[in-house]
Design brief:
With about 750 residues, this protein is an alpha/beta fold. The structure holds beta-D-glucopyranose.
Length: about 750
């Protein structure tokens, strides 16, 4: 389709109206020009195609579709291939339902465990979130269906999400809140990006030209169109000029006249409007020209894919005395309503009308299982009678498995959690069962993390997050050892909510949320301050064991223009097949800049038969060592000694090797009379000029005379380092004239 020509044939009114959708879920069709309407729909972990009443809060029903595990769950798989495959499955489903753009993945960073929408998001770590987002996008788009990576950016709380301003400094934006979007754009070119509801440093995302045009398009090379989150438009004409192409849902009767008025009074250019139309049409025709409405997919097959994804993602957090897997013939008690009616998906726009749901109780048919509900979903107080019955049932079993978590009323899109507690009655159930049977295993179903004051009283702990419609089968696969657990946490579990770095400032005051913890989000904070945590980032157990050896770097020294190849061997040293997630962390050099102790810069999931060993290889470039320098507005890898570490999790680095990185960046600095000698000497040119000057002045001798003591050269240097240039006048006595300082500054800044 010649999109430029098509736009040239549109009237001004048609163009002004085209940048707003046709209805709740469709772009605008223009019959006169034969432009059809195209459907966009949620996402991210299943299709929510509404044919009847529409809404963006998951209130009204949608067509039956597969409900895959949520983002918080699948992120723990650390498995690009698996996530790509799930994207392919979603792409097929979208084709069969004639959907042009699927609204996902959701990649906002988990700043606080209280965010009501953490269940949908991948991680606290931007590298992991970006890698998984790219895999998802590549999967969906391989079926010629677009994606919409969301919500750009800093939508890390639900509290006042449509009015609050995320106040974030530039370095933190660049290092924490942008990279998942950046990576996805650079590696996978999502067809669309969804701008967030919130403001960033006072400016609503839909009118943020710096973000939507300068950064997203000019810097990162985004080629698709930007769509508003549903109802996120604050000022349509300004949004058009900023590069916010499509308003959704359609709201043209309200916004089209405003766009036309802005064109008329000259505050909006027709060229900007044309650009939006072209970008929207380019993407829509990409879908339309290869649409496959006849696609038929295998519901059962996709349900099995959902089961596999859940089983590869859920995390085994505790397994004392090898309580799991369950042994053949053991008498097992399932306690808790979630065993019968699981919680497997989140509330709000990602809510799917599931094809079919399997509970653990159903999936356990054939095993020797008894059951007691332990709690109801309705009551706000623990039900002592149900708890006592559950404890009795537990007592009669060899192993007691307690199913607990958080009910949907406590965790959903649209509002934040109030605390990190389990639903009422669930904690009491765990305590009662654990008291009745020493062989207690806890299974947790919820979208985020919880505090676990009971953890020492149970032997096993399987953390499921929200496992999608096949959650029950996946649970039984893992409990019985049919599948060996291989998930690892994509977020840190703090001991207490108050330990979280954003705790003091989260939700902010009124409409202002200051991200004062800056770059120290998640393990970047906990590890730097050595705070004890419940479970660290990257933690997870297996029914087998793995050993690491032979960490090798292809060089011990590199320029920031070079790449570094890292290899390491990992071996399955146990007796069953399993998968290990090899995690590579860069331990930052000690330099001028305040940085996290270490950051995840690589991971690979490796399948190993018992006794099998494989070599894993990583390539690191400058970005793996770099921080964002707000003076240069660029990524800089400071010169210094870094280390490459391989970890089982962020707190357990098993192998480590140093590498010296030499920066080739030239950051031009301007010096004045208040610049310190230390800063000037750190600059190669400054060091040369000052060195020469000192020689001429015989500075050493002079200084010794002045201080009257034989100061060590080292102490002298340390003292000088913090002395401003103007101190020369005092130190140099008559030798130093004002003109000399002027000349010196001219030379330094020349
Ligand atoms: C959500 C988006 C979603 C949209 C459409 C909004 O409320 O924030 O993630 O895609 O609704 O349902």
């Amino acid at each position: 389709m010649d999109v430029k020509k098509l736009v040239s044939e549109m009237t001004l009114e048609e163009k002004a109206s085209f940048v707003s959708g046709g209805d709740f879920w469709h772009s605008q069709g223009i019959q006169r020009l034969g432009i059809p309407a195209v459907m966009l729909t949620d996402g991210p972990c299943g299709l929510r195609k509404q044919e009847g009443e529409t809404d963006h809060l998951g209130l009204n029903d949608s067509v039956k579709a597969i409900s895959y595990p949520t983002g918080s769950c699948v992120a723990c798989s650390f498995d690009r291939d698996l996530i790509r495959e799930s994207g392919e499955a979603l792409g097929e489903e979208a084709q069969s339902e004639q959907i042009g753009v699927l609204l996902g993945p959701a990649v906002n960073i988990k700043r606080s465990p209280l965010c009501g929408r953490n269940f949908e998001y991948f991680s606290e770590d931007p590298y992991l979130a970006g890698e998984l987002a790219a895999a998802y996008i590549n999967g969906v788009q391989s079926k010629n269906v677009g994606t919409s990576i969301k919500h750009f950016a800093c939508n890390s709380q639900e509290h006042r999400r449509m009015s609050s301003s995320s106040e974030v400094d530039e370095r933190t934006l660049r290092e924490i809140y942008f990279p998942a979007f950046e990576k996805a754009v650079k590696q996978a070119q999502p067809w669309t990006v969804m701008c967030s509801y919130n403001r960033i440093n006072g400016t609503y995302s839909d009118v943020n030209k710096w973000m939507l045009t300068d950064v997203l398009r000019k810097e990162w090379g985004f080629e698709g169109f930007v769509v508003s989150d549903w109802g996120a438009v604050s000022d349509r004409p300004t949004g058009v000029a900023a590069g916010m192409d499509l308003e959704m849902p359609g709201n043209g009767s309200f916004t089209t006249p405003k766009v036309l008025a802005a064109l008329k009074d000259g505050s909006l250019s027709e060229a900007d409007l044309d650009a939006c139309c072209e970008r929207i049409l380019t993407v829509l025709y990409k879908y339309l020209e290869n649409a496959k409405p006849d696609t038929v997919f295998d519901y059962e097959g996709h349900h099995e894919k959902a089961r596999q994804m859940a089983a590869e993602s859920m995390v085994l957090l505790k397994n004392e005395d090898g309580i799991l897997p369950l042994k053949a013939g053991q008498k097992v008690a399932f306690l808790g309503r979630f065993a019968e009616t699981p919680r497997f998906q989140g509330g709000g726009s990602s809510h799917v009308n599931s094809y079919k749901v399997t509970s653990a109780l159903e999936a356990a048919q054939g095993l020797n299982v008894t059951y007691a509900p332990g709690y109801t979903f309705e009551q706000s107080e623990p039900d002592q009678k149900l708890i006592a019955e559950a404890a009795e049932t537990a007592k009669a079993a060899d192993v007691a498995v307690v199913f607990v978590g958080i009910t949907e009323n406590l965790e959903s899109e649209g509002f934040d959690r109030k605390d990190l507690q389990l639903s009422p009655g669930h904690k009491e159930l765990i305590e009662a069962v654990a008291a009745a049977n020493p062989n207690t295993v806890v299974v947790v179903q919820c979208g985020g993390c919880v505090e676990m004051p009971w953890v020492d009283r149970v032997k096993g702990l399987l953390y499921e997050y929200l496992g999608g419609e096949a959650v029950g089968s996946a649970t039984v696969d893992l409990l019985t050892g049919k599948v060996n657990p291989s998930g690892k946490l994509a977020e840190t579990f703090p001991l207490r909510l108050e330990d979280n770095p954003s705790y003091l400032w989260y939700q902010g005051e009124g409409d202002k949320t200051e991200y004062r913890e800056g770059i120290f989000v998640g393990y970047r904070y906990y590890d730097k301050v050595k705070r004890d945590v419940l479970f660290p980032f990257g933690y997870g157990l297996s029914y087998t064991t793995f050993a690491y050896s032979d960490l090798r770097l292809d060089k011990a020294q590199m320029k920031d223009t070079e790449t570094l190849t890292v290899t390491v061997k990992v071996k399955n040293t146990g007796s069953v097949a399993g998968k290990e997630i090899v995690q590579l962390y860069v331990v930052n050099a000690k330099g001028q800049v305040i940085r996290p102790e270490k950051e995840l810069k690589g991971f690979e999931k490796v399948a190993l038969a018992p006794g099998e060993e494989k070599e894993v290889s990583f390539t690191l470039d400058k970005r793996a060592f770099a921080y964002y320098n707000t003076q240069a507005h660029d990524w800089i890898a400071e010169s210094g000694e870094y280390a490459v570490a391989i970890g089982r999790n962020s707190r357990d680095l098993v192998l480590c090797a140093p590498v010296k990185v030499e920066s080739t960046a030239v950051i031009r600095r301007t010096f004045d009379l208040n610049s310190t000698f230390g800063d000037i000497m750190a600059d190669p040119k400054g060091a040369a000029i000052i060195g020469q000057m000192m020689q001429q002045m015989g500075a050493g001798a002079q200084a010794e005379e002045n201080t009257g003591s034989a100061m060590s050269a080292e102490a002298m240097q340390a003292m000088l380092a913090y002395m401003p240039l103007r101190g020369l006048a005092m130190m140099g006595g008559d030798q130093v004239k004002p003109e000399m300082l002027d000349q010196l500054l001219a030379a330094l800044n020349g």
